[in-house]
Design goal:
By secondary structure, this protein is α/β, with parallel strands linked by helices. It folds into two domains: 8-267, TIM Barrel, CATH 3.20.20.70; 276-342, Antifreeze-like/N-acetylneuraminic acid synthase C-terminal domain (Type Iii Antifreeze Protein Isoform Hplc 12). The protein is 33% helix and 16% strand. It has an eight-stranded parallel beta sheet. A two-stranded antiparallel ribbon has the order 1-2. Strands 11-12 form a two-stranded antiparallel sheet. α1 runs parallel beside α4 (85-97) and α1 packs parallel to α10. 36% of the residues are buried.
């Protein structure tokens, strides 16, 4: 599995987790959008993701959101939150000024063509477009890395999408396990072990797109091997936008990032061996064969003369039978470790 490069970041095995603040359209105006980018950068995100769409090319009129997603007209919501070309330009420029990667989820080839104007470094494919093979082909042909969510899908459906991208000659692919509920109420459905299933099946970096209101779930995903974490982000949960209430605010997002970085540091390389910090502890707290009384040189050592206790400076307990019955070469004092050169 080769790592995927996005901007100046490498994503994959043995690389730091790539953390995405999904601001989507969690803002009511450009001032809030810019503040969201600044806050995400300050909270430790590696990248900010928005959404690029036009209501007329995204949904039919009259279609309603499911009740669990808030209900209401899909067309009217998407029409309200469409971003103009100028809005995109301002946000990409502001992200660059703040030293953070900005990219987007396009929903139509026209959206892709718009994003190309801003030299977007990576494309995100939402779960709703997993089987939109014409869109996948259009994006793959751009030759840029792709992050694809896999919510609502079977493994065979993911395979069809992955094959479509690979056939275009684009192998810079990252998959995200995802549960497409907004928000997730029942954690039993999250199924984080699917991260390992996707990695084993497709041999590409796999991450987790998190729609829970938990800060521990994304950290657990990293423990299971997630190379990417995407988490909804808002500067204010009370904003009059659909996703703000279940998104992480700056304080929560920063706490999540801290947890992920701590876990990364603690995971290690998997080799079972004493840590450098344990070396002195190992010597002083493990046990060895110790004299329980003064033993004169020439004395044959019996069981009553020795015991097994700390420290480990003498012969290891496994050599007790080797020591018993042998003569002391030198005087051995009480509480002195018995070493090979003394018998």
């Amino acid at each position: 599995m080769k790592p995927v490069k996005i901007g100046n970041k490498l994503i994959g095995k043995e690389q730091p987790t790539f953390i995405i603040a999904e601001i989507g359209y969690n803002f009511e105006n450009m001032d809030q959008a810019k503040k969201s980018i600044e806050a995400a950068a300050k909270a430790g995100a590696d990248a900010v993701k928005i959404q690029t769409f036009k209501a007329d090319t995204l949904t039919t009129k009259g279609l309603m959101f499911p009740k669990e997603a808030g209900g209401g007209s899909q067309y009217e919501e998407f029409k309200r939150f469409e971003l103009s070309e100028e809005a995109h330009r301002e946000m990409f420029n502001h992200a660059k000024k703040n030293g953070i990667i900005l990219f987007s989820t396009p929903s139509h080839p026209h959206d892709v063509d718009l994003l190309e104007k801003f030299k977007v470094p990576v494309y995100k494919i939402g779960s709703d477009d997993l089987l939109n093979l014409p869109l996948l082909e259009h994006i793959a042909k751009k030759g840029k890395p792709i992050i694809m969510s896999t919510g609502m899908s079977t493994l065979s459906e993911v395979d069809k999408a992955v094959s479509t991208i690979f056939k275009m000659g684009n192998h810079d692919l990252i998959l995200l396990h995802c549960l497409s509920n907004y928000p997730v109420h029942n954690l039993e459905y999250v199924n984080l072990k699917a991260i390992q299933t996707l990695e084993k099946a497709f041999k590409v970096p796999v991450g987790f797109s998190d729609h829970t209101m938990s800060l521990s779930i994304p950290v657990a995903a990293v423990v299971l091997g997630a190379a990417v974490i995407e988490k909804h982000f808002t500067i204010d949960k009370k904003l009059d936008v659909p996703d703000a209430f279940f998104s992480a605010n700056p304080e929560e997002f920063e706490k999540m990032v801290k947890g992920i970085r701590e876990v990364e540091s603690a995971l290690g390389d998997g080799i079972k061996r004493p840590a450098k910090s344990e070396i002195k502890m190992r010597k002083d707290t493990r046990k060895s064969i110790i004299a329980t009384k003064d033993i004169k040189a020439g004395t044959r050592i019996t069981k009553e003369m020795v015991d097994i206790k700390r420290p480990s400076h003498g012969l290891a307990p496994e050599f007790l039978q080797f020591v018993l019955g042998r003569k002391a070469k030198v005087d051995i004092k009480m509480d002195e470790p018995i070493t090979r050169d003394k018998i």
